[in-house]
Amino acid sequence: MSNSSDASNEQNGPLPTLELPNGSLITQEAALDTDKNIVQEVRHVEATKAFYRRLWAERDVMSALVKHHIGLGDQFDCFIAPQHQWIRGNFNVCLPVNVRSPGSSYKLILRCAMPHKLAEAHKPGSMDEKMDCEVGAYAWIQEKCPDIRIPHLYGFGFSDQRHFTHEAHRPLYIRMLHGLRRLYHTLVRRPILLSRYTRHAAQYRFPTAYMLLEDVGSDSSQMLSNTWNKHRMDPVRRRNLFQGISRLMLSLSRVPQPRIGSFQFRDDGTITLTNRPLLCSFMILENEGSPAAMQRETTYESIEPFMADLFNFHDMRFLSHPNMVFDDKDCRGEMAARLLLRMLAHRYVRQDRRNGPFILQLDDFHSSNIFVDTEWNITALIDLEWICALPIERLSVPHWLTNCAIDEIREERWDEFNRAREEFMNIFEAEERKVKRQDGLLSEAMRDTWTSGGVWFWQGMMSINAMSTLFTDHICPRFSTPLSFENEQLLSRFWSEDAAEVVTNKVKQYDDYTAEVRALFEKNTLSP
């Protein structure tokens, strides 16, 4: 049978594929088997290529902006790396920059936001919102967490051509004036933080928001992801890494926050906790077309309204995403899981913490956001765009420590993760004992949410697509045997008054989506 299949494949030729934004190829079978919106993913490929071409055409402007922010003259040569050296993430593309003169040199990163990955088409202003929050996080950590090594932020610009530069790179009189402003803020004990960034008008127009950062990479410092698979079972390196991550978490949580939200950079240089909690999942799903459940200025002084808006956001995503469910049974199972999660939500909020305090947390924390030395001591933390003040219950051991996604932690992978979790918690508690806290031990909260199952609730609420899987695998078994289709059918009726119509529409939506995917592959096959 194998030979026959090989002969058939050889006769029919290779399977048609489509290119994805990360450069990989996907077959039609795989495209129909994933819950990602492949139609949109394919559109992003051409949008990314067009964005690269536009950036490359603006390299003289980029060179001028680099010199503008560092305060360098024409005697310095600025070299923008060729496109094959650019580093692309989910939301930004990073361009290595070398600045040289006879007496000095700089290694920099020009980090450019990709509008087509930041919901700019659906929600104009979202790219600048992300920039506001990221700069706010940088400035806050610079002042309040000096023990956390982050790249030096030389300057940044918004899509509406507002530019700002760190005071250290401005003329003496501006440094003195800004220093007096900061002194005044300190003396009168104003609660609003005044950052070190000053307005710095530029005559250059650039097509996107950007940040000019120090390049923290070196021969002795590289992304953890580069050596993760090779050394992740090494006990000495693991201990060093777990200590470093624990210190990051403890440092960020040192100053209690009065509300749930994100920091916002304002035109006068101040930093305020006045932006909605800008979670990574929000941006991804809003970029796919999901309606926003929170206005930009919405913050939360208690947990319940925040949870209610999270549920509303996931419900709107459920209704709008074309590839969410594939048939009647799947749809009713999703609706039943969401209904039951709403019913159980109160179990995962401590009443004595419902109104805070809240703590800063890294929402999108992974092995490519950390730079380490050869022994895995953390040398720098990068990508601060998704730092939010969130409930303490949300804090947990990073799920990627065992190399699996959050919805893959089951059966033997659960045992593996639990061992790594306990190893991490022992180190976390040892580091926590060195720090004096006024609002209780974080380790106690982390162990409580693990014991209660709250960790799976909060991970599901913050995820893109793992909510129902985590409910089925980890929450439902605490209360019941697996739900039968009859159970799901009954419960799903209470998801909304028009539940039957929702099911019909979702199945039709999926059928239309699969037809569009097949048409894409057919078009690609017919193209020369």
Automatic annotation (TrEMBL):
InterPro entries: AGP_Transferase, Kinase-like_dom_sf
Comp. bias (Polar residues): 1-14
Superkingdom per UniProt: Eukaryota
Coiled-coil region list: none
Region described as Disordered: spans on this chain: 1-20
PANTHER family: AMINOGLYCOSIDE PHOSPHOTRANSFERASE DOMAIN-CONTAINING PROTEIN (PTHR21310:SF37), AMINOGLYCOSIDE PHOSPHOTRANSFERASE-RELATED-RELATED (PTHR21310)
Name of protein: Aminoglycoside phosphotransferase domain-containing protein
Species this protein is from: Verticillium dahliae (strain VdLs.17 / ATCC MYA-4575 / FGSC 10137)
